[in-house]
Amino acid sequence: MTKQPVIIVTEGTTELGKHICKELAATQSIVMSLSNDENAGYDLVAEDPRVRFRNTDCSKESDVAAAAREIESQFGRLDALVINPSVSLPDVGIPFTEMDLFDWNQALHHQLTATLFTARQCLPLLKTTKGAIVHVVPTPHESAINSELLAVCSQGLVGLTEALANSLSPDVTVHAARYILNRTDVLKNDVNQFKDVAAMVRFLVSHKASHINGQVFNVSNRVLDKKPS
């Protein structure tokens, strides 16, 4: 068994996922990025060789289970699970009255169902190390319209965070780092916000947060958010 902490980051090849992986790798932890974007995974490892990559479809429980078994076999431990859900939601601006239910159900699966079964597959390892689960929660701006799907996913992840914290205490701590996902202007999802989210995740998986549980931290500059663009 390795003595280094081992951390999984799901969808670790997204722009936010990469920031989280690199931030955690700087703590001398073994960081395993899970994603089915193989080219982006190899690019991430090339950018920061401290990060490892495993080609995994995070929407399939069998793939996640195989990744957990491999980590147990290779490292013998898992100290933290960072669930960074896919945010590939339907095009912004679609009223809920016109939304295809297939898109609705797919988003619920990727953001909520996959989050649940990923925690379930990793739980035995996390209990052994008294580890942590951190949900990275994209949420719509308070003034956003036609954002029902993202709002439901966001509130679902917050509720899941609080419920799991109750169920898994004292063996495993569970937190959420919530950030504003701007669906109308991608440029507003800037690198500074992603750096702040990554720094919050780094804190929540550290021993400094070992006595905190079930909390939802908003990573947002509310002063700037409220200013007109």
TrEMBL record:
A Pfam family this chain is assigned to: adh_short
Keywords: Oxidoreductase
Gene3D superfamilies in alphabetical order: NAD(P)-binding Rossmann-like Domain (3.40.50.720)
Superkingdom per UniProt: Bacteria
Oxidoreductase listed as a keyword: yes
InterPro entries: NAD(P)-bd_dom_sf, SDR_fam
Keyword Oxidoreductase attached: yes
Family: Belongs to the short-chain dehydrogenases/reductases (SDR) family.
Protein name: SDR family oxidoreductase
Native source organism of the sequence: Photobacterium arenosum
